[in-house]
Design goal:
It is a single chain. The protein has one domain (3-85): Ubiquitin-like (UB roll), CATH 3.10.20.30. It is an alpha+beta fold and 90 residues long. It contains 2 helices and 5 strands; from the N terminus they run ββααβββ. Strands 2-1-5-3-4 form a 5-stranded mixed β-sheet, with no helix packed on it. The termini are far apart.
């Protein structure tokens, strides 16, 4: 099963789990499963149209899904998915 690394700001929604697993075979399926398992997580990652928010980066094995197939990016059992919210500073 692909593993999903949860960033610190979202861990309160995953019972403080840093890494969770999913049976999803695409990024979109993983995000749906995460939202079902951990209510409220999906709205922090996806906008009201179901598109990955601009300030959230999702990587599959260090490759940004925006340069792959976005939510249609296929996943293998050994893949690691990282959700990385952008950090603004000044």
């Amino acid at each position: 099963m692909p593993t999903i690394r949860i960033p610190t700001p979202l861990r309160k929604l995953t019972n403080n789990e840093e890494v969770v697993t999913s049976t999803g075979t695409t990024i979109g399926a993983v995000l749906e499963e995460l939202n079902t398992t951990y209510p409220g997580l999906g709205e922090r990652i996806l906008d009201e149209n179901g598109v990955i928010r601009r300030f959230v980066n999702i990587f599959v094995n260090d490759e940004d899904v925006r340069f792959l197939q976005e939510k249609e990016t296929p996943l293998k059992e050994s893949d690691e998915v990282s959700i990385v919210p952008a950090i603004a500073g000044g």
